[in-house]
Amino acid sequence: MIRIVLYLLILAAIAFGVGWLADRPGDIAIDWQGWHIETSILVAASALLVLLAATILVWTLLRLLVRSPDLIGSSLRSRRRNKGWAAISRGLVAVGSGDIMGARRAANDAQRLLGREPLTQLLAAQAAQLSGDTAGAEASFRTMTETPATRLLGLRGLHVEARRRGDTNAALMAAEEAARQEPGLAWAADAVIEARCLSGDFAGALAMLEREAAHGGLDRAAHRRRRAVLLAAQALALELSDPSTAREKAVEATRLASTLVPAADVAGRLLGAVGDARKAAKIIETAYAATPHPDLADAYLHLRPGDSSQERLKRIRTLTSRMPAHRESAMVMARAALDAQEFDIARTALAPLLGEPSQRVCLLMAELEAAEHADVGKAREWTARAVRALRDPAWVADGVVAERWAPVSPVTGKLDAFEWKVLPGIAATPMLENEAERVKAAIAAAIESRAVAQADADRAQAVPHDVAPSKVEPQPVPQPVPQPVPQPAPAVVDLPSGPGAPTLAPEAEAHRATSERPSSAAGETLVAAPSSPAGASARGRSGPDVVVAMPHLPDDPGTGPLHEEASPRGRRPFGV
């Protein structure tokens, strides 16, 4: 609209000028070299305008003639460049769609038409990667490092290729070079931090983290979280060699991330060791309220090493009150109650979890039955249920279940990758190992007590028939010789065998040797089912146990092979 108005204004000005000249006629006379020219002012002005237009046209034609070679060359170059960019576009689309041959052709065309353009080199490298030509890809990336504009891109490519072929040193060198050139580059800083964490150089990793944050590579929240993770890892590494430094690092980590479980765990243990139980309890309670974890509960129980089991049970109530409805709180309470021999409290704590028990709940119930009532049958029943029960949470990173937390993933090296969660598809978690050992010891103690009690009862019944009278009294009437009363057959109990199996007292071993019976059929085991209520075996029995035949359970830790899922230390969690 503005252009139209301006155009109309210009036309109006020209018309006004022409009209003004037409209203004021005049003559112009020119005498030059014998020429005499006489005309009006309007004609002279028109002739001057025509002369200017002709001059401009001639100048334009001469300039075009002089510049024609350059214009032709520029046109050809522009056409060639357009074809090159079109080849790059086709190549990128081919790489994205997985067309190897199309990507190669496009990369060759782009190199032929555009030469050493950055996108041309990138397309050539990606086409080589797509076709599996590692050497060609690395050659393209090395070519990029020779140009300042593409140096970081080339270092990134060399880092990726080195990690793909497993050359950690070359990958680290490329990342460190990129981090020196651009400290705020996220991938380079992260790669250096992860490599230093894997080598145990947590101080170097912290220094690299601070450089990255100083150059704007991290926001405040991410910087605090990563620093807390590195400080917790450093505290764990220094816990035995330098406890005072480890304590400072752990406390600083809890200030940065109060819900970080490893930091709260090591800080609580180290503060409790120096007698600062109040501060340690506060740190653990804060972390437990966000993530109920058995390591936090264990550290909380042993804040004061000299406390009795009753005192620990009283203290654990304070911790579980932070998350009273959580499954972990019930299991922690049951664990402390079992240690204190408060079986009613343990059974009450586990009762809400028996509808869908997890593996740890099953093992706690097995230990409870063995410890409270010496009921080996029920203990083994709960142990067998643990094989097929719900899985408990564990430290998981990139699909790997680890026994302990670590600052980086063992697969990808990613910082702060471990999560406390349940990973579907795993058979057991390392957390069950201690529980299984406790169940094993409880069942062994129950079996030994039953065997010793049965042996004592057998000897007590056999003594009147084996001891000769010291003095024979004359009897007026001969009495029939009393016959020994048949003794009830002892129950056959399937004990664990092999290395690590519990050892029994000599009487129990003799009783076991005399009480073994062959199975009633191939693949079956004789299992004792007590006829009296729970606890009768510990208090003595008046009648024999009912012996029934049951087939082997596939994963029954008491009668079948041990569970095949081994813990990271090589021990079987279900070897009860």
Automatic annotation (TrEMBL):
Keyword entries, A-Z: Membrane, Transmembrane, Transmembrane helix
Record field: compositional bias (Low complexity): 528-544
Ranges where the HemY N-terminal domain occurs: 26-132
Transmembrane feature ranges: 41-62
Keyword Transmembrane helix: yes
Domain of life: Bacteria
Location in the cell: Membrane
Region (Disordered): 456-576
Bias (Pro residues): 475-489
Entry protein name: HemY protein
Organism: Ancylobacter amanitiformis
